[in-house]
Structure formats: structure tokens, C-alpha cells
Write a structure and sequence with these properties.
5-stranded antiparallel sheet; 5 helices; globular; Nudix hydrolase domain-containing protein
Length: 183
């Protein structure tokens, strides 16, 4: 997975920087892709990425533990693609309850999920439930997770593409500055 060698602390820093820069680039909250809510609940932060096309990533953070829930609206793993609306079997199996419980809020639409990963420490490996894809179903993680801008260069590439001319509201030097402020 693209996040395998990225410590949790660096991932959280990049999420904060991306959300802060999105605010600088766009006054309209509903048009931003990145958000970060510190203390969404006691000791819980929540970050998100939404591409405006129905795909999203929600990241729940508690201390060194992180849970990532993704939803690719075109995936055959989507509950909407099943004969009977249902979450793919095993999707949340084994996920830490303290993180998973945050997704029970209607705001996060726990059933809108095509992949879920978690890591309980900076040095641990990413885990997922006992999902079984028998026909090489695509859960969307391979193309959606790279949308998380983990470096200033990734953010610049994203912002130039997404905001186009409005990217000129900030400079590449500003992007590097914000990323360094959150390290």
C-alpha cells in the first residue's frame, strides 16, 4: 500500500497541511477536497478527502492509531453494487472498536465503504478485515489512496490540477512552508 513506509505522525502532519492549504486556496468549504477536524470527539481527530465525484476517504485518528475508510462509488465492492445493499463481508472485521465507533455517526455513512485499513502504532503494519475478493474485484484503494497528498510536491501537483489558475493564490514556497509547520 502507498502508505506502508509512512509513519502515522507524518501522515497526520500531511493531512493537516493539505487541509490548511485547501482553506487558503478555496473560500467555499463544499468545494474543498481536504478537511481536518481536530478534537472531533474527545481525543479523536478526523480528516477527509472528497473528490466531488462521489468518492471519499475518511481517516479517524486517536493517538498513534489510524483507521482509513474509503469509498469508490464505481467499485463492484460498493454496497450499491450488491444484489442486496450490504457491506462487503469482512470489511470491518478486526477493526479497532474505538476508531470504528466514530464511523457510526450518520455524518460518515459507515455503509459507504469499499476498503478499510487500520494501523495501531507508528511502527505497525496496515491491517484490513477478512475481505475475500474471488473475482479480482477492485475496491478503489489503489487509485484513491494516492490522492492523499503526503509531500509538498504531491500537494502542488494536486492543487495545480484541481484549482488550475486559482493555484496562483499561493506559491510553491508557501506549500513547503505549511508542510514544514506541521512536521
Amino acid at each position: 500500500m502507498i502508505l506502508d513506509n509512512l509513519p502515522n505522525k507524518k501522515l497526520v502532519s500531511a493531512l493537516k497541511a493539505s487541509a490548511a492549504l485547501d482553506i487558503e486556496l478555496c473560500e467555499d468549504e463544499y468545494l474543498r477536497c481536504f478537511s481536518y477536524k481536530a478534537n472531533w470527539a474527545p481525543e479523536i481527530d478526523v480528516a477527509s478527502y472528497e473528490n466531488g465525484g462521489g468518492d471519499e476517504i475518511v481517516i479517524v485518528i486517536k493517538g498513534d492509531a489510524i483507521l482509513i475508510k474509503g469509498f469508490d462509488h464505481e467499485s463492484e465492492v460498493s454496497p450499491h453494487a450488491q444484489e442486496e445493499f450490504r457491506i462487503w463481508p469482512g470489511m470491518y472485521e478486526g477493526a479497532p472498536e474505538e476508531l470504528l465507533g466514530v464511523l457510526d455517526n450518520d455524518f460518515f455513512e459507515i455503509a459507504h465503504v469499499t476498503f478499510c485499513f487500520w494501523r495501531t502504532s507508528n511502527s505497525g503494519s496496515w491491517q484490513q478485515g477478512t475481505v475475500n475478493f474471488q473475482n479480482n474485484e477492485d475496491n478503489g484503494a489503489s487509485w484513491l489512496l494516492p490522492a492523499i497528498t503526503i509531500t509538498p510536491e504531491c500537494f502542488i501537483e494536486y492543487a495545480k490540477d484541481y484549482y488550475q489558475d486559482d493555484f496562483n493564490k499561493i506559491t510553491p514556497a508557501r506549500v513547503h512552508q505549511v508542510f514544514s509547520e506541521y512536521e
